């Protein structure tokens, strides 16, 4: 007797589409920012209410929330600029209340003045918007005494700056994540170009060029994270140990950004050469060696001990980059491809800490 086959139930609807991992990752990454906002907002409110005796210090709390936010870039300068923008809006509105009182046209005038002054003082649109929002709050919600809310705003701004230094976000962890993303993109692009050279495949080469042209957003995120982290490390007593690693990673980032530009040049040459459909195993092997050495540079992000291994691997491939010797009798286009790999290797060598002049001398003169 045979039974009916048992099949697993089919999950449909939102349960099939919902993946909790991105949500959990967002929550994990936002843990410190949430803690900063909660501590700063409640601390500023408690100080203004219990110590200064302000009955409803709304702006003491809202200034902290708006200036800190949940964004990755929480460098002290950005926080301070946002605080100053909000204080500007409070000041303009408080002054106008004393002169003209409250009403619909006074609200419009306060908003116009705040936006105009903010745009004169700063090129950042967020600065003007932050000022305008606080100006609206002051004009709409009554206060018991003039300029009371300006004091609340100052209290909130000071609280935001204090938690930036005393409860710092971990910049090194975020920077490492961004760096790995960049190196993974470089590795994927290099692998695609290597396969295109091995097969003489123009379509694959074009795909590699598309990947090479898509690096910039990841590089920009890495740079922004490092700039924020270095700024916080300068003022936070808890992050001073990370300052050296952040500086070293910035040196790597600068060199890798130059290397990605040269990888785009290599990719364009690969596309041009693959148009004839002829495999080029020698050029493919050289590019594969460069990609493997770049992997050692990526490993050095976590452990500086990998830098000598990365440097040795790159020096070994750099010494072979003489187009005439590597491809004797080859076409000018083939030799130009090898020549385009030379600055790519030089940039990767500087990423290992080698001085630029020494890195240039590592490739043979042609």
Please explain how this structure is put together.
This protein is mainly alpha-helical. The chain has 2 domains: 20-166, no CATH class; 171-362, Methane Monooxygenase Hydroxylase, Chain G, domain 1. Helix content is 76%, strand content 0%. It has 17 helices and no strands. It has helices at residues 14-17, 20-29, 31-51, 58-68, 76-100, 104-121, 125-140, 148-166, 171-199, 202-212, 216-235, 243-273, 281-299, 307-318, 323-326, 332-351, 356-362. Mean pLDDT is 88; it is low at 1-12.
What oligomerization state is this entry in? single chain
CATH C-level category of the largest domain: Mainly Alpha
Order of helices and strands: HHHHHHHHHHHHHHHHH
* Average pLDDT over all residues: 88
How many β-strands, per DSSP?
Answer: 0
List keywords for this structure.
single chain; 366 residues; mainly alpha; Methane Monooxygenase Hydroxylase, Chain G, domain 1; 2 domains; 17 helices; 0% strand
Tell me the layout of helices and strands:
Elements (H helix, E strand, L loop, with lengths): L13 H4 L2 H10 L1 H21 L6 H11 L7 H25 L3 H18 L3 H16 L7 H19 L4 H29 L2 H11 L3 H20 L7 H31 L7 H19 L7 H12 L4 H4 L5 H20 L4 H7 L4
Short synopsis of the structure:
This protein is mainly alpha-helical. The protein folds into 2 domains: 20-166, no CATH class; 171-362, Methane Monooxygenase Hydroxylase, Chain G, domain 1 (Up-down Bundle), CATH 1.20.58. It has helices spanning 14-17, 20-29, 31-51, 58-68, 76-100, 104-121, 125-140, 148-166, 171-199, 202-212, 216-235, 243-273, 281-299, 307-318, 323-326, 332-351, 356-362.
